[in-house]
Design brief:
The protein is of the alpha/beta class. The chain is built from 13 helices and 17 strands. The protein has helices at about 1-10, 15-35, 60-70, 115-125, 180-185, 205-210, 240, 250-265, 285-295, 300-305, 325-330, 335-350, 390-400, and strands at about 45-50, 75-85, 90-95, 100-105, 130-140, 165, 175-180, 195-200, 215-220, 230, 235, 275-280, 325, 350-355, 360, 365-370, 380. Strands 4-3-2-1-5-8-9-12-14 form a 9-stranded mixed sheet, with helices on both faces. Strands 6-7 form a two-stranded antiparallel sheet. Strands 10-11 form a two-stranded antiparallel ribbon. Helix 4 (about 115-125) runs parallel beside helix 5 (about 180-185) and helix 9 (about 285-295) packs antiparallel against helix 12 (about 335-350). The longest helix is centred in the first third of the chain and has 25 residues, at about 15-35. The radius of gyration is 25 Å and the shape is globular.
């Protein structure tokens, strides 16, 4: 009977008009409230550079969908350059409603090329003039490790990846291109961005980040690998959650790093609870270099023969075994007084750091991360056994950080 009486009342003209009026008021108020929750637009563009003309192509759709979701609540402008397999590279802006506005479509080109990266940055700054600019680089990486490395293994799955890979479908396998860390840093103008977020594997190396000390105010990177498992919501940064924070200062970047860590640390499966993240204040890097030089200068001969058994590592077994914890290494080669001074400067340089307790690729390929040994940065230890390798020569001939040894 209640249903029949309610229907009768609603059919009465005056009451029906009142209901329509009230519904309209509520609807309009609701719309106004939604609009008010959107952040005020600011003059800030963030470019996400997806160099995916490689095995990461399968994660592109997932990543762009997450970026679009995050862009809906972002105060600045989100731009994306994407180069993927079997498709021409394109540059587009993401609108507040998640749609794309195409800015440029290119002929097939090499996205794993420093000149291409610099050109795209220049183009987006011209197409979308903004007071502030942020940069995210998304691709494969092997940190500072050089593309000149020649692996003994021939298995394609263990081939080093450096920063970005471009596989041209029209040419032989030998034409695969890579970007060297020092080449990128030299190509980028000083002050290119407010921050550079390296959404790539193993770029949380002191050697690699030091090359970019003049290119941005802040750097974000992972000393470990970065997962690429889109089917499990575990592929790179969780852009749907952090995108609105990529238009602020160090506080917003710190919050974004915190969210990144929690995203992975709260995963259901152990194999997915594998991540690390670090936020660096670049203006402190030269002072950190000076502190390190005070400790390591003149000690190369001794370090070449040191044992690394107790040093925290960040490499899984199918990549070069050269990623050790930076502070853990310094502590093993310094006095208490030297280390205290170094540690104080390190705390001013590393604004945020976090890692999961383990990093796992498979049941038989994982390592633990001791919180007491986690500095947020990795380092290369120039051991004697690597003296005749290309990576050793590259390290001392092309990386600025190698000068801490006074050689």
């Amino acid at each position: 009977m209640k249903e029949k009486n309610l229907l009768y009342i609603l059919l009465q003209g005056k009451v029906r008009k009142l209901i329509i009026f009230l519904f309209t008021v509520v609807y309009l108020t609701g719309c106004s409230s939604d609009d008010d929750t959107l952040p005020a637009a600011i003059s800030y563009t963030t470019l996400i550079y997806l160099a995916a003309d490689n095995s990461l192509d399968g994660d592109v759709d997932y990543t762009i969908a997450k970026i679009k979701k995050g862009a809906r609540e972002s105060p600045g402008t989100v731009a994306v350059y994407v180069d993927r397999k079997n498709a021409p590279p394109r540059l587009f802006k993401i609108n507040r409603d998640g749609t794309e506005t195409i800015l440029k479509v290119y002929e097939e080109e090499n996205s794993a090329n420093a000149e291409t990266l610099v050109r795209v940055i220049q183009e987006i700054k011209q197409l979308i003039p903004s007071e502030r600019f942020g940069l995210v680089i998304w691709s494969h990486s092997m940190g500072w490790y050089p593309a000149t490395y020649v692996a003994e293994q021939t298995d394609e799955s263990v081939r080093p990846k450096y920063i970005a890979i471009d596989e041209d479908p029209n040419v032989e396998e030998s034409s695969i291109s890579f970007m060297e860390v020092d080449d990128i840093a030299k190509a980028l103008p000083d002050g290119t961005a407010e921050y550079i977020w390296f959404d790539v594997c193993l770029m949380g190396t002191i050697e690699g980040l030091y090359e970019f000390r003049n290119k941005a105010s802040y750097l974000v990177a992972s000393p470990t690998e970065v997962l690429s498992a889109a089917d499990y919501d575990a592929s790179g940064a969780p852009y749907d959650k952090i995108m609105p924070l990529l238009f602020g200062d160090k506080n917003e970047l710190t919050e974004a790093c915190t969210i990144y860590y929690r995203h992975y640390n709260e995963m259901k499966y152990e194999i997915l609870r594998s991540a690390s993240i670090t936020l660096i204040d670049t203006k402190e890097l030269d002072r950190l270099f000076a502190e390190t030089e005070q400790i390591l200068s003149g000690k190369l001969l001794a370090i070449r023969s040191m044992s690394t058994d107790r040093i925290q590592t960040y490499h899984t077994k199918y990549i070069p075994q050269i990623f050790f914890d930076f502070a853990n290494f310094i502590k093993a080669n310094s006095t208490d007084q030297e280390y205290s001074s170094f540690e104080q400067q390190l705390s001013q340089t590393v604004l945020f750091k976090a890692s999961t307790p383990t990093f796992m690729v498979s049941a038989d390929n994982k390592f633990t991360i001791d919180p007491s040994k986690f500095s947020g940065l990795s380092v290369y230890i120039p051991l004697m056994k690597w003296e005749e390798t290309n990576d050793y020569r590259y390290y001392f001939s092309r990386l600025e950080w190698s000068k801490v040894y006074g050689e």
